[in-house]
Amino acid sequence: MDREQMVRDARLCAQAASHNLRLLRKYPDKILPGEKVHVEGQLLQLIAFEKWERKNARRAGRTSLKQKLLKLIASILSRKEADAKC
Length: 86
Fold this sequence. Notes:
The protein contains three helices and no strands. By secondary structure, the protein is an all-alpha fold.
């Protein structure tokens, strides 16, 4: 597995982990009482790894600051356009 594929997988796992963490906190009765802390810790660890990998990728020069800012601006503008249509 090459590095880029691993980074994509980490991002997908972090997105799923964020979703699962929200569900876990919203519906705590869906999991065994003794397992809640363990599962929540694993989900937080996945999210932290993805954040670390994103920061590490920028340091290594795989992602430039200009590209990061352009993606951020594009996401903000697309949200404003979506809000204006509603």
